[in-house]
Description:
452 residues, six-stranded mixed β-sheet, four-stranded mixed β-sheet, 11 helices, 18 strands, 21% strand, disordered C terminus
Amino acid sequence: xxxxxxxxxxxxxxxxxxxxxxxxxxxxxxxxxxxxxxxxxxxxxxxxxxxxxxxxxxxxxxxxxxxxxxxxxxxxxxxxxxxxxxxxxxxxxxxxxxxxxxxxxxxxxxxxxxxxxxxxxxxxxxxxxxxxxxxxxxxxxxxxxxxxxxxxxxxxxxxxxxxxxxxxxxxxxxxxxxxxxxxxxxxxxxxxxxxxxxxxxxxxxxxxxxxxxxxxxxxxxxxxxxxxxxxxxxxxxxxxxxxxxxxxxxxxxxxxxxxxxxxxxxxxxxxxxxxxxxxxxxxxxxxxxxxxxxxxxxxxxxxxxxxxxxxxxxxxxxxxxxxxxxxxxxxxxxxxxxxxxxxxxxxxxxxxxxxxxxxxxxxxxxxxxxxxxxxxxxxxxxxxxxxxxxxxxxxxxxxxxxxxxxxxxxxxxxxxxxxxxxxxxxxxxxxxxxxxxxxxxxxxxxxxxxxx
Length: 452
């Protein structure tokens, strides 16, 4: 199969795979990626890594021998060392602190030979393989950053199309039939999937469909529900500390998620805690002793103008107004969070195996003078005690409950993902990191033609 078109509602605002941090960017660059580990059905598994050994002070990784750059060169351990160093030293990189267990030394990451390297750590980090599933830790070529080692390479891009072609040297997986060329086509707004039904694309965007028609779409044979969990939430802005505690409690208690979900034909699922997605799915109900006050307060809330962000915030605005809280909505450009605000409306992709990266992000916003700072710091350190690994679920629950109690994280809804797709593509392969887009075969081993 020569070519398919995939719709995407916005192009990434970062320019390389080691800096990518938005959902659309991850979808595109995941096909250029060669991560050391991948997550399948909630379990982290080796991908480019062959051997993984961990002690309290060191992580040793041996990579596979059959990894090749698109120019035919072997991928070396030093290429992964180079990429990791880039990420953790890039001041604007979202993941620069994710490997915080590394010692503060230039020899924290060292290649021993062509296929083996080590990460020296100050403490035991049980989540380090999960961190290394990020496509950002794909290898970096010694002299040319336009060379890739994943299943596809970036051939060209303009304001409307990003074109990938198959990496002929990629041999980590052995699909017999796969797509040779992918065009990611910018389709800014397509609530009814018309770009798919008119033949412009073979796969629709998985985040741009009309939520009020989502149940209707699900009944169609061309529609596939995605496995990604996207979470709508409110997170602290730069003026968060200016919100009085009683206002935070009033605000959180005023949001009626079920009523808002009904406005979208219940396609949005009310969501109260990250822990609903992990371990046994249970979470502690955060105490809320909010009382009615006549004192009014104005909250500035920033957002990016993608469907249905503004609509959801409009409903929240109406609900909290009844509690004498007035929302001022401030629109930010995509990826350019410049607004002075108390809260920021976000949609985050939930990690598949544990909530560690989400919890870390929320904890990083906690002021050191906060009344629960020392308590949360102690709980967080317990997550990195090897002997307490069986207690991780309970520890996460306690941290999560405190964060929600203080409004440091206000989860709102699970945002459904799904897309229309032509029948002869293996839908599970379309957005999988490090995997070719596979083509199905019919009973006669004949491949159905895709629109070109």
